[in-house]
Amino acid sequence: MDKWGSLVVLLGILLVFFLEVKGTTLVEDGDPISQQEKDRVLELPGQFFNVSFAHYAGYVTVDEEAGRALFYWFFEAVDDPSSKPLVLWLNG
């Protein structure tokens, strides 16, 4: 696996870890599907067309007391999304 492939795998693992550790409370508080739909991106500023894939964006709380969170943006694959997820991780 090349350098970029390893980085994508590592970032994917980190995302799963943070969602598991901090996202568990959210899922327990309500229906997981309704939680997903809250983060679904339906339109973007300046984008006057619909895309044929689902994408979700939001924040994963890291330290609630300090008000720290990590931003995530998840793009679902167009073909067979259950076997080919793609994660774009942005930190600022």
Euclidean distance between termini CA atoms: 27 Å
What is the radius of gyration computed over CA atoms, rounded to a whole number of angstroms? 14 Å
Strand percentage: 15-25%
| Percent helix | 25-40%
H/E element sequence: HHEEE
Query: How many helix segments?
Result: 2
Sequence stretches where pLDDT stays below 50 over 5 or more residues: 21-27
Annotation, overall tally of beta strands: 3
Structural class: alpha+beta
- How are the strands of the biggest sheet laid out side by side? 1-2-3
Domains, number: 1
| Major sheet attributes | 3 strands, antiparallel
Mean pLDDT metric = 75
Can you tell me the overall shape?
globular
InterPro entries: AB_hydrolase_fold (IPR029058), Peptidase_S10 (IPR001563)
Signal peptide: 1-23
Keywords: Signal
GO biological process, one term: proteolysis
Describe the protein.
The chain has helices at residues 3-29, 32-39, and strands at 55-63, 68-75, 86-89. It has 92 residues and is α+β, with helices and mostly antiparallel strands. Strands 1-2-3 form a three-stranded antiparallel sheet. The two termini are 27 Å apart. Mean pLDDT is 75; it is low at 21-27.
How do the strands and helices of this protein lay out in sequence?
Layout: H1 3-29, H2 32-39, E1 55-63, E2 68-75, E3 86-89
Antiparallel strand pairs: 1-2, 2-3
Annotation keywords:
92 residues, alpha+beta, 3 strands, globular, serine-type carboxypeptidase activity
